[in-house]
Amino acid sequence: MIISSSKPFEEILENLDDPGKIFVLGCGVCATKLHVGGEPEVEAMCRKLRNAGKEVIGGGVAKAACSIKSKESLLENDPAIEKADTIIVMSCGSGLSVVSSLVDVPMHPATNTDSLGGYSEGHVRKDLCAMCGSCIADFFGGVCPTARCPKGLMNGPCGGAMEGKCEVDPDRDCAWELIYLRLKEIGRLDLLEKIFEPKEYDG
Amino acid sequence: MSLKTNVTYYPSMPSAFKEKLLSDEFVITSEISPPKGVDVSSAFEEAGLVRDYVDAFNVTDNQRAVMRMSPLAMGHLLKGQGLDVVMQFTCRDRNRLALQSDLLGAYAMGMENVCIMSGDYPTKGDNPGAKPVYDLDSVQLLGAMNRLEEGYDIAGNPLESAPSFTKGAVCNTEPGKPLQLMKLEKKARMGIDFFQTQAVYDIGLFETFMDSISHVEVPVLAGLIPLKSAHMARFMNEKIPGIHVGDELIARMESSTDPAEEGLLICAEQIRELKKVCRGIHLMPIGHYRHITALFEMAGLYEKN
């Protein structure tokens, strides 16, 4: 799941000097699950924009903003889009990119796309995968250091962790502590000995 | 003050620092911070105060992610003053192209002693919005240095001429931490010449640590930061990973009428103990340079010939 968070409303307004007719488009997948671009959030956004004196001609939620088949299918779902001068997109950056390739009006994001993560056991889980294109997460008990260590250290922790917490964010567990615990659980502490070569970025 | 530089490029000669590491004499390095600006006179002055005691000056690389003059430039200028230098080199700010080219440059300017570290994260410093690089980690960077020494860059392209480094790395000294030990062993497996540790205050614990790494057989320089106050001790306990100042030392600092002097005395006692335990010390005076000569004398360390 793509982890997104809502932009401050003031920042969205700053980009709407002379927007004309606004349509607000949410996304039915990740943004809905995370409550940043589902139906309630789209409705709330329409209301706030109207309260701020903007002309909102409609709102809707695409089934999956990143996977809209064609302009026709987008319009079939939300015909009001055709009359819009500006679209506010409440999806991840991929969703916004796909929508902007289909419709010829300016659009603005209402969310920031933070990371590839998940939602499990009632918790949002950020930074689970860095999408590096050469997965070796199995060597780390499924806890990818490229994604989960801010320094992306593949050969062990830095000296900055305190009491098992990350140097960068003390609220976050040191990725290497998690790797150690997972490898211990699955009886593969031997993997800690392996020296990993630098990642290649040309693939 | 003369800025005349005297570049030495003697590929066949090991550095004086490396020779000292290989000898059985006690090694002393001391940290010098490049200026936040272009005037290096304070750094020269600090180095000048203790130059007769110190084997090599360890030049920091934007330490704590605070932007300063580059250690490559500062090291080169210190070399020009006739001082031996260990250049600190972090993985934070450069990708593999820049790391390798700076290492070649450092060697060509006579700085063959390099101490590798990951580097504090940019958000800890004074340019918090900087892009963190960490293209290589410290183990991989040591591997890249080995490749350069073999006459190839990290991608396998041949070099026209090859460097030969004295390679160091850093470590914490808490015994019984399996991940820290694993990382230390990986660095040692890359064939390094010395370890430089986080500041040590508990010599007993440090001895236990030294026993736990006796299989590694890499010379260890124990980090030392003279205490200035009980407050400083508590602050480091709370904020600096890998540092633990015991209650007994804090009590000594608290009951002293001259805490700065007491801190130096404690440090001198520690140096005397450490002489029996490891190959040398790495002193981090943190604005305390004027008192370091006295410290060395209290610790029974004498001027070099």
Q: Portion of residues in helices of chain B?
A: 25-40%
**Could you tell me the radius of gyration of chain A in angstroms?**
21 Å
Strand order of the largest sheet of chain B: 1-2-3-4-5-6-7-8
Helix content, binned percent of chain A: 25-40%
What is Rg of chain B?
Answer: 19 Å
Structural class per helix/strand content of chain A? alpha/beta
What are the secondary-structure elements of chain B, in order, as H or E?
Answer: HEHEHEHEHEHEHEHHHEH
Kindly estimate the percentage of residues of chain B that lie in beta strands according to DSSP.
Answer: 5-15%
Helix-strand string of chain A: EHEHHEHEHEEEHH
- Kindly state the mean pLDDT of chain B as a whole number? 92
What is the residue-mean pLDDT of chain A, rounded to a whole number? Answer: 96
Low-confidence regions of chain B: 1-10
Put simply, the count of helices of chain A is 7
- Which parts of chain A are unreliable, with pLDDT below 50 for 5 consecutive residues or more? none
Distance between the termini of chain A: 24 Å
Report the sheet-strand fraction of chain A. Answer: 15-25%
Strand order, main sheet of chain A: write it out.
Answer: 3-2-4-5
SS class of chain B: alpha/beta
Largest interface: A-B, 24 and 34 residues
Please provide the count of β strands of chain B: 8
Largest sheet of chain A: 4 strands, parallel
Structural description of this entry:
- The complex is a heterodimer of chains A (203) and B (305).
- By secondary structure, chain A is α/β, with parallel strands linked by helices.
- Helices cover 27% and strands 22% of the residues of chain A.
- Chain A has helices at 9-14, 30-33, 39-51, 71-77, 93-102, 145-148, 175-185, and strands at residues 2-6, 21-27, 55-62, 86-90, 107-109, 111-120, 123-129.
- In chain A, the strands form 2 sheets. Chain A has a 4-stranded parallel sheet, with helices on both faces. Chain A has a 3-stranded antiparallel sheet with strand order 1-6-7.
- Chain A has 7 helices and 7 strands, in the order βαβααβαβαβββαα.
- Chain B is an alpha/beta fold and 305 residues long.
- In chain B, 38% of the residues lie in helices and 14% in strands.
- Chain B is built from 11 helices and 8 strands.
- Chain B has an 8-stranded parallel barrel with strand order 1-2-3-4-5-6-7-8, surrounded by 6 helices.
- In chain B, helix 6 (178-189) links the parallel strand 5 (166-171) and strand 6 (194-199).
- In chain B, helix 4 crosses helix 5, helix 9 runs antiparallel to helix 10 (259-274) and helix 10 packs across helix 11 (292-298).
- Chain B starts with 15 loop residues before the first helix and ends in a 7-residue tail after the last helix.
- Residues 1-10 of chain B have low confidence and may be disordered.
- At the A-B interface, helix 7 of A face helix 5 and helix 6 of B.
